[in-house]
Design goal:
The protein is an alpha/beta fold. It has a single domain, classed as Aldolase class I (TIM Barrel, Alpha-Beta Barrel). It is about 40% helix and about 10% strand. The protein has a four-stranded parallel β-sheet with strand order 1-2-3-4, with no helix packed on it. Helix 4 runs parallel beside helix 5. It is globular. The protein starts with a helix and ends in an 8-residue tail after the last helix. Bound molecules: iron/sulfur cluster.
């Protein structure tokens, strides 16, 4: 374990809820390691989840599963803030991290700040990550309210961007969606 990970773990421990939820969190952790140790087929509650706020996207990378047959056949939509809160309500007390990511561009979800604030209101220690293609015209404006405030990690899909650049140069098979 390197220094960064140790620092992260200490921060995580220091921000664990100091109430009845700590018990649920710890029991679940113990179960997780116990099942793993026993090589059991049982699993503990999830400690990390991906919550897809939207599966709409503003671009169409040729390498994206969305562009495959089954991707094109999938229904597209956006979760409501209340639905997102319901998922968080059910799971937060055992979670270490939440990825607000799916098969879409998360920053198209206009209420992202509200969802991030809601997670943090449950437990400031939950690590929140967002994957983004970072090419929305007003991307900076959308990210700004979250930086240094509640968003713990912003992970740019740099490979996606690289692939897109190559795609433009090589085949022009790339387009913006309305
Ligand atoms: S940005 Fe991501 S979700 Fe959107 S088309 Fe590209 S790979 Fe797919």
């Amino acid at each position: 374990m390197n220094a960064r990970r140790i620092k992260k773990a200490i921060r995580r421990i220091s921000l664990l809820p100091k109430n009845k939820y700590l018990y649920k969190y710890l029991i679940n952790k113990v179960k997780h390691f116990w099942y793993k140790f026993r090589k059991s087929t049982k699993v503990a509650y999830p400690q990390t989840i991906m919550l897809e706020l939207t599966n709409r996207c503003n671009i169409a990378c040729v390498t994206c599963p969305r562009e495959y047959e089954y991707g094109k056949a999938m229904a597209q939509g956006t979760i409501s803030v209340n639905q997102a809160k319901k998922v968080i309500d059910e799971l937060w007390c055992r979670l270490d991290s939440i990825g607000l990511t799916g098969m879409g561009e998360t920053f198209l979800f206009k209420e992202i700040e509200e969802v991030v604030n809601y997670i943090k209101s449950k437990n400031r220690g939950i690590i929140i990550s967002v994957s983004t293609n970072a090419v929305l015209p007003d991307f900076i404006e959308r990210v700004k309210p979250l930086i240094g405030k509640n968003l713990t990690l912003l992970r740019l899909q740099s490979m996606t961007r690289l692939i897109m650049i190559f795609t433009i140069r090589l085949s022009l098979n790339w387009r913006f969606k309305n």
